[in-house]
Structure formats: C-alpha cells, structure tokens
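Observation: inputs received (chain + zinc ion).
Thought: call the complex predictor directly.
Action: predict_structure
Action Input:
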Amino acid sequence: MNLLPLPAFSDNYIWMLHDGRHALVVDPGEAEPVLQALDRLGLRLQAILVTHHHSDHVGGVQALREATGAAVYGPARERIPAPAVALAGGDQVEALGLSFAVIDVPGHTAGHIAYHCTLADGAPLLFCGDTLFSGGCGRLFEGTPAQMLASLDALAALPGDTRICCAHEYTLSNLRFAHVVEPRNAALLHHSRECERLRAHNLPTLPSRMALERDINPFLRVRLPAVAAAARRRDPSVNTTDAVAVFAALREWKNEFR
Ligand code: ZN
Ligand code: FE
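Observation:
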C-alpha cells in the first residue's frame, strides 16, 4: 500500500492510499489534484472517504464521483454531497481490500468521524480530518470542549505506531504554541527542529505518529501538571484538576495565539 498526501488549496492535504491499481482518497476539497494523481499513477479511484462537511473537505466529491464512479462514504449526521454511504462510530468500511473502523469524534463539527485501519503491510493508519493535528487540534465550531476532549482521548488511545493523517499542514504554528505551553518539553523541541527542516524543503510534516503526539501535543496532555499549570497562568479561574476546563482554556488561548 502506498500513502501520499496530495496538497490542495493553501494548506490542505487530500490523503491518497493506493495499491498500484486502485486508490481511495480522504476529504477531497478539490478534484483536480486527485484527477492528476490518478492519471499520473495510472490508478482507478474506488472510494472517497469524508470526515466532515466543511467545503475544503467535500468540494471535489461531486466532480470525482462523476469522473470515476467511486463510492462515497461520510458521516451520517452531516450533510455531504449525496449519494453517500452514511457512517457512524462502530461501522466498518471495506475498500482496497482493507477494513476501516469508523470512530465518532464530535467537536470540530457535530458529526465529525475518523477512519482507523490496521494495515496488513504496515503501521495502522488514522484519517482524522480536522480533529487532531500534529501538535494541535481543530477549532470547536460546533462541539463543546467536553466533546472534543473525549474525541481526542479516543484517538490518543489508538496504538502508538498509528500513522496520523491530518487534513492540514498546521504543524509549525501548532508547535510554536505547544512550546509556549511546555517550554521544557525536550521531545517537543526535537520534533520542532525536525519539522522546520522538512518545511524548509517544502516537505509535509505528516503523517505523524500517535506515540509522538502523546509526548508533544498539549491538547492530549491536559492531565499533566505542567500543562494544567500553564492553562492556569493564562486563565486563573481554571481548576487544574478539571481536564475539560484545562482543555477549554488551552483551546481559547490557541485561538488568540499568533
Ligand atoms: Zn474543517
Ligand atoms: Fe479543514
């Protein structure tokens, strides 16, 4: 299996998985990068997986379906271009001979889902849309902090070697924020240097790995005293033993962080 991030818009990635003959894509916000890759690699598009309804994730669905006849899968609780197979947590999607487990991850949007696949020939894969980013998480457009924290906790419980395929290249700005939260986190400093090197060569910082995110991502670390203390320095009303309150304070802080 081959995994590649197709750049789209200014900072989106449309993830493509292919076996040399058939392909699937996740969150095609535009069709053109996918059509070009299919053509260049001589692939047939078999499936389109959608994580949530935002236009930078579904804008290319209709054109791709019309051009390729690929089946579309997406969240049952959101409006995405029809017809699509409606999915919710606990469902399985079969594509490319692989099985993808659907996980409900509300927070960024109310019906956001993620896809987790244990590959026969490599580390597990997670397509998590705009829920988990390397060093960060999605904004809370439709969900509550409690929902988003529960979603992130569910993802963080996946195997440590899971490759995390996020939908945006937000890593460097996330890591700058993470460093302000945890200035003494050595793993974070090391990873920041590696990502700066990659971006200097215009290379993706993704996929990330779950074990790494558990070490560097402040939004997965809200129960650590150092992270809770940082949230409290920012907002003195935060109860540091309340993970949801710490998470909410971090998320608000990040919203204003430049
Ligand atoms: Zn989004
Ligand atoms: Fe997005």
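Thought: report the result.
Final Answer: The first strand starts at residue 2 and ends at 8. The pocket of zinc ion (ligand 1) is lined by residues 52, 54, 57, 108, 130 (CB under 6 Å).
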